[in-house]
Design brief:
- Helices cover 38% and strands 26% of the residues.
- It is of the alpha+beta class and 76 residues long.
- It has a single domain, classed as K homology (KH) domain (GMP Synthetase, Chain A, domain 3, 2-Layer Sandwich), CATH 3.30.300.
- The protein has a 3-stranded mixed β-sheet.
- The chain is globular.
Amino acid sequence: MTSLIETIVKALVDYPEDVMIQENSEETKLTYVIKVHPEDVGKIIGKQGRVAKAIRTVVYTAASQYDKKVYVEIHE
């Protein structure tokens, strides 16, 4: 799942070498934290959060095979 997120995000940003995906696993949830260059945060969020919502939709659909709830967070 990390490679899927990384592939999507790296295609959207100007500084793909600064993209970091961190996976935090807990008992009932799985959280992916996306960290990008400060100049690229707006590109990942998009106007009114549309790009972020699209990324989350793809990840949630791909993660439907897991028994855990999956979350995607974007950090500056």
